[in-house]
Amino acid sequence: MRKETIRFVNKDKSLFFPVLRERIDQYFKEKALLKQGDQLLVWKGIFMLGLLLVPYGLILSNQFSPGVDLCLAILMGLGTAGVGMSVMHDANHGSFSSIPWVNTFFSSCLYLLGGNVLNWKVQHNTLHHTYTNIHDVDEDITGKFLLRLSQGDRRWKIHRYQHIYAFMLYGLMTFSFFVKDFRSAYKYNHSGNQKLVKPFTRRNILTLITSKLLYVLFIAVLPLAVTDLTFGQWLLGFAIMHFTAGLVLSTIFQLAHVVEGACQPEPDESGCVYNTWAIHQMYTTANFSCPALLSWYIGGLDFQVEHHLFPNISHIHYRALSPIVQQTAEEYGIPYNNKPSFQQALSSHINMLKTLGQ
């Protein structure tokens, strides 16, 4: 089966999503609200950027001991994750603000994390949000180093222990940007799947190379040039920062799709998935309950069901929309996968790692 032939077929002519969309639109109309973020979200974006850049500036001031600098590196890691989940994520979906240039500005924060905006939009917005949990198309679950997150991936003996070592590998997520973005650009230009993704242009490649060089200047050259840090001290801080960011980001993302109750449908030989796109999202995505402060920090990604159904709506609205989504799903006999707590969601993910590994 060729990946570009995958399509969703509304076999049962379900009215679930048209009805839900009408109810969501009615909610915003009655509340006189914009679907995008508000001024408070802009301030949140500034705060998250500060959580990344203020510790960076303090390190560059060369006023602190190596031990304090390591603590600042951890704060930078938390800021990196916060920018990724609460700022860049919404902005790249066009939901951070109703003003296009504001979305463009905050989406560019991804370059500060070592990533690439175009690659993110292809992998996340196009492939992950369209073909969620479909093997070999959704790159979030396919072909991971030493991990079997998809039933379609080959099982190796080491996978039986993946529930033990997985979280160490999750910490490598943002490290992979340095190689992954170039590898993805090559793949998208040579895969022949142009019905799914467009190839990188020369301008896109130039942006990719330039942004990586600027990131190296930002994260390595400047700290080593203006501080007394040795290369070993810098390397340790760099590793701690990225490991912190990667661990937080990967864990939150895995709790949405690699948990009990989140299906991994396989298209038939003709490439058909016999569900509407919206119902497919309901079967492949899960929410989890968590304290309000954690929900604020992770950009509402505890409401992944709402996000996958309405990625063009800012995360600040998801808590209010979730009862509407759940009620409508129940009316149409569609599952609404919600783990009662963060701890139970984490336990469910570990159980899935065990299942997929054995």
From TrEMBL:
GO terms for molecular function: oxidoreductase activity, acting on paired donors, with oxidation of a pair of donors resulting in the reduction of molecular oxygen to two molecules of water. Coiled coil: none annotated. GO terms for cellular component: membrane. The keyword Lipid biosynthesis does not apply. Keywords: Membrane, Transmembrane, Transmembrane helix. GO terms for biological process: lipid biosynthetic process. Residues 72-337 form the Fatty acid desaturase domain. The keyword Transmembrane applies. It holds the Pfam family FA_desaturase. InterPro entries: FA_desaturase_dom, Fatty_acid_desaturase. The chain crosses the membrane at residues 41-61, 67-87, 99-118, 164-183, 204-225, 231-253. CDD domains: Delta6-FADS-like. PANTHER family: DELTA(5) FATTY ACID DESATURASE C-RELATED, FATTY ACID DESATURASE 2. This is Acyl-CoA desaturase.
